[in-house]
Amino acid sequence: MAKKLNSSRVLSLALTLGIILMPRVFAVSIKALNEDKFILGKSFFEKPWVAFPASTTARDGLGPLFNQNACVNCHPQGGRSNKFVVKLDNPNTIYGAQISTKSTGDVPVEARVAIDYQTHISHYENGDTVMLKKPVVRLSNLGYGKVDSTLSVRIAPSLHGLGLLASVPNKPIKRFNLSASEPSVLTQAANAAHNDMGLSNPLYPQENCTNKQIKCNNAPKSNSLDLPQHRLEAIAYFVKNLDQVSAIKPIKLFAKVGCSHCHTPSYDLEKRTIYPYSDLLVHNLGEGGFRTAPLWSGKRAPNFWHDGRADTIEEAILWHGGEAQSAKKSFVNLSKKDRVKFIRFIERM
């Protein structure tokens, strides 16, 4: 007679098999892993949400206004993607802080979004040129009237290494998301759940509707939170254990150009040294304040900059201005041989 496996052994076996196979999908930290919490978080990160009411009561509550129906849509394998959202630089009472391009039921979407590009040519001293492009948002089919704000694009960043960055000492508490406005992975996850998927949660208990959006406010909704505390914590726990990051030591040229002033190469944590190449601080590079983007694992990125405007490392460097103007000038003045060496160094990360 076959022996019965108890539930804890089945869970342990499932997790073991999952981690053995998971490098194809996620690279994770398995030290001191809470098995139940990790599996729960991974499930809610990957599986799509549906509108309320539905038979899948654990995953209904999507919208009424939203952009994506699953975390993994914007963060494939936990990484960066070409998916983006449109932010209002001056959040208002009609559209809030972000344009929602999808909706449930008969709720009008906020707008259709198209991206155009402004281009210009950047020149090197030796005559080499690089074409740079900047996204420009174009809205149509506005669902709620005029948008009284300038608009900007935000690309979904990589989530790998966030748990490690949380452990860096002597840095501001607010160090997460593109503008370092969130104090933890959990608050970042709650923000994304609310603004990107329309999920109410303990930090955002109201629906993602403004007072002007009548059908959104009147749409069917549960009497309980779409994403309760324990599931939000599980998603944050899963994300914090994504640590497929590079560990490339700096070359002298990196400091010579001046990049290490903001892209701090490394930090010594309790049990390891990490190489994120970020001071985790906000700087103005000519277009508002953004946190210094970590460079680790950039070789897997499909694009660069907060709005994905750069297709290559070289383009990303040439977009630097403001506080980084002198470093960019140093890069531009390098010999072509050193420029290539510099770019290849970053491409290795």
Average of the residue pLDDT scores: 92
Residue share in β-strands: 15-25%
- How many strands, which pairing sense, and closed or not: the largest β-sheet? 3 strands, antiparallel
**Helix/strand/pairing category:** alpha+beta
Radius of gyration: 22 Å
Count of alpha and pi helical runs = 11
Number of beta-strand segments: 11
Q: What strand order characterises the main sheet? A: 3-2-7
Terminus-to-terminus distance: 53 Å
Helix content percent band: 25-40%
Order of helices and strands: HHEHEEEEEEHHHHHEEEEHHH
Poorly predicted segments: 1-25
Give a verbal description of the structure.
By secondary structure, the protein is an alpha+beta fold. It has a domain at 85-155. It contains eleven helices and eleven strands. It has a three-stranded antiparallel sheet with strand order 3-2-7, with no helix packed on it. β2 and β3 form a beta hairpin. The protein starts with 6 loop residues before the first helix and ends with a helix. 35% of the residues are buried.
Please sum up the structure shown.
This protein has 349 residues and is an alpha+beta fold. It has eleven helices and eleven strands. The strands form five sheets. Strands 3-2-7 form a three-stranded antiparallel sheet, with no helix packed on it.
Features of this protein?
alpha+beta; two-stranded antiparallel ribbon; 28% helix; 349 residues
Topology:
Blueprint lengths: L6 H15 L13 H12 L18 E2 L4 H4 L9 E9 L3 E4 L2 E2 L8 E12 L5 E12 L10 E5 L6 H4 L19 H13 L16 H5 L10 H12 L11 H6 L9 E2 L4 E2 L7 E3 L4 E3 L21 H6 L6 H8 L3 H12 L2
Antiparallel strand pairs: 1-4, 2-3, 2-7, 5-6, 8-9, 10-11
Helix pairs in contact: 2-7, 5-7
